[in-house]
Design a protein that fits this description.
Elements (H helix, E strand, L loop, with lengths): L4 H12 L20 H8 L3 H9 L7 H11 L3 H12 L20 H10 L3 E6 L4 E4 L1 H7 L12 H7 L2 H5 L3 H12 L8 H14 L1 H9 L7 E7 L6 E10 L6 E8 L2 H19 L1
Helix pairs in contact: 1-3, 2-3, 2-4, 8-10, 10-12, 11-12
Length: 283
């Protein structure tokens, strides 16, 4: 676990919860965003000093009962609770919440390839824990091929986002996309995994502050769903893509990302790309 991920996560979630959401009155003069440490401590049934130690990284092994109390007050969902548990376990020497010493999975099982075939023409890609793109539908290739994401061996979503200037044009909300990429890398042992550590070192050099500042500030699990804005060079206007993350069995160490139109204009744009692609294949 890098530096103080547990403390960063707890503080970020504390500052995101309003007093009203926690059932507390909202005073006229509040300099602290969200809950004060004293309020979190009171609601969770622990001391202010203990909350301070957790946030400052001086205590990284809270008990299960304290974790449950904090999770309840902070309103954590299931994915965030699992992430919180991983952060506390990662502080224990020898703990492994993933196959940190194994080579990242790059083999695509036959059933997964068959699933990708069935998902055509939806833009779908198979990704491993390093953000490498392992297999994809023709719909995904039509969507991201023209912006350069599939270049490289192997093609890499995280390298594209941080090290390719075209990404800032392709994604109007580049900062949010970059945050999500870092959150995905940190959703587990992160630098305790030598493969992820090497990737992080590489991005520190190639991307500089764009990566290192996020490594130091982004906490929490990645968003499993949402809407991605994208600019495609072959279409006018922006695409709005609703994405969903489909986790495969844990031994696969892979996940599917599916991108679907979030509005009628995007649906029409994707249909135009599909039609153009089919015409090219026919020729």
């Amino acid at each position: 676990m890098s530096e103080n991920e547990l403390g960063r996560f707890l503080r970020g979630r504390r500052e995101a919860v309003t007093p009203a959401e926690a059932g507390l009155p909202t005073g006229p003069r509040r300099r602290t965003p969200g809950l004060r440490r004293s309020e979190l401590a009171m609601l969770a049934g622990v001391s202010v000093e203990y909350v301070t130690r957790l946030e400052q990284g001086r205590d990284r092994r809270p008990s299960a009962s304290v974790l449950s109390a904090l999770a309840e007050v902070l309103g954590l969902g299931m994915a965030e609770r699992i992430h919180l548990y991983r952060l506390t376990k990662a502080a224990e020497p020898g703990f492994s919440c993933g196959a940190e010493s194994t080579t990242p999975a790059r083999t695509v099982r036959s059933p997964v390839r068959a699933l990708l075939d069935q998902l055509e023409p939806a833009a779908t890609v198979l990704v491993n824990r390093l953000g490498e793109l392992l297999a994809w539908t023709r719909g995904f290739e039509r969507l991201v091929g023209p912006v350069g994401m599939l270049e490289g061996s192997p093609a890499s979503m995280v390298r594209y986002v941080f090290a390719d200037e075209r990404a800032r044009t392709a994604f109007p909300d580049w900062g949010r996309v970059a945050d999500d990429q870092v959150a995905a890398l940190k959703d587990g042992p992160f630098r305790a995994d030598p493969h992820l550590a090497r990737l992080a070192d590489e991005l520190t050099v190639t991307a500089g502050a764009g990566f290192t500042e996020r490594e130091a500030s982004v906490s929490g699990p990645p968003r499993a769903s949402g809407v991605l804005r994208m600019v495609h060079p072959g279409l006018s206007g922006e695409l709005r893509l609703a994405y969903e993350t489909l986790e495969l069995p844990v031994d696969d160490d892979q996940r599917l990302l599916v991108y679907l139109p979030a509005d009628e204009a995007t649906a029409a744009g994707l249909a135009a790309l599909t039609s153009a692609g089919e015409r090219l294949r026919a020729v």
